[in-house]
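DM between two lab members

TW: hey, do you still have the Arc-like DNA binding domain-containing protein entry open?
JB: yeah, one sec
JB: this one, 140 aa:
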Amino acid sequence: MAENRSKSDGFMLRFPDGLRDRIKEAARRHDRSMNAELIARITEHDNLHQFWMTADSEIAKLEAQASQAQELREEIEKLREKVEELRGQVAYQEGVTAAYRDSLLVFAQRMKGSKEDGETLLKEIAKEIAGRGKGEGSDE
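TW: and the structure you got?
JB:
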């Protein structure tokens, strides 16, 4: 039975001129049969092929990850720009809030000692604030 198996696993091979002699010499140097030399070379080639297939796959994964990383860097940069824009808006709103607070403080101070109604005082204060925006001074 083992004899039939070895015949079924056999493979007839024709060598190009000179290749048989090179394989025979390599087998002699490696102290093995020509069959063992051929099997060793085929196995080595197959192992290298598998290695490069795996390497190519890993390289493709790394390239995809690098692309994703670049996209994330770009997104982070956009978010940083948006944060700076929002900081500017917050600073502006803080300025507006401070102006309203100051206006209310002025209104409250004037209301304390005034016999005028609140609407008239507000109109005067609004004129005064508008004058400040135009560079005019005021007497407080």
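TW: got it. Residues 15-133 form one domain. Residues 34-112 form the longest helix (79 residues).
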